[in-house]
Please model this.
Amino acid sequence: MAIGAGAALGLVALGARYAPEVGALLMPPPGSGRPATPAATPAAPQPADPAAPAEPAAPTDALATPSAPAGPGEAAAPGPDPRPGPEVPGGAGPRASAAPVVDRFADDPVARAACPDDMTLVEGDFCPSIPYICARAAEKGTGHGCPEYARGARCLEPTDYRRFCVDRHEWPNRVGELPRVFVNWFEAKALCASAGKRLCRRSEWILACEGPKRLPYPWGFMRTPSPCNIDRAAIAFDLDAMMDEDTREAEVARLWQADPIGSHPDCISAYGAYDLSGNVDEWTDNLADDPSTARPATLNGGYWGPVRNTCRLTTDGHGPTFKFYQAGFRCCADTVDGVHTPPPRPFIERDREKDSVYD
Model:
């Protein structure tokens, strides 16, 4: 059974995004005021109008099925994942689960009062527009385009103060488990809602990644050395195998190069969120930032392959029913400590909405 027109057309958009960067692929894969702060089975067909989507029931695709959350504000406990663990290159067998992460943000009393234990506090000024200027040219054949970005870039528009919580890790936000993929935008929103959270606004995701210094990558300005799961060799996917329900799971496993949650303890942003660059692409909510957008579903951060993984990179060429082997998500939420925060201003980038593939 086919993935559907959304995914099929999405392959074209994946090529548009990744083909210029991954030559080895046979078929490319895809001043504002501050308040005072105290110390896989495809989902059922979705509505055609993405600006007013109807939320689906919790999805039941074969990769993982979450149960109801244990209580308010707690993450939904996912059911057992029948998919075998990803194989280590060279046939060494499945990767072992990661050791518990020692989180330097875990004992911050302000963050602990503001957010649940599985989330971290993001508090800072979001910049709606900042240029990424390449400081030196990339060597021929590199997949990311720019090995080092220039320092000193300044915000070009008034900043917007934000204070919110973000999941420390990609869904299911549990150290040692595999990040969830092959989930569409509607499903990601429903899963976040099931845990008493929301899918992150695109602007929230960017701020959580860039940190207060507005870095191109969570770790700095240079592509390498990177503490994150990026730049792994691209593997050409088998389109027929991906579109057939009987062979899809095996094809996803063959292509899989994401690491278990918590495998990269140094891949952490200045606000304490892990793996925002690399590992898996993450759905974000552009509709929450711009209610009149024609493109509500956006992907941020890139995945494990040799693609751009900067904090501002946004893929907006896929519709909300698109799902693929590298697309996952994480959740955000309002703070719970009672500190009043002004609502965010709209974040609008209409120049991104061009006549390109949108599935």
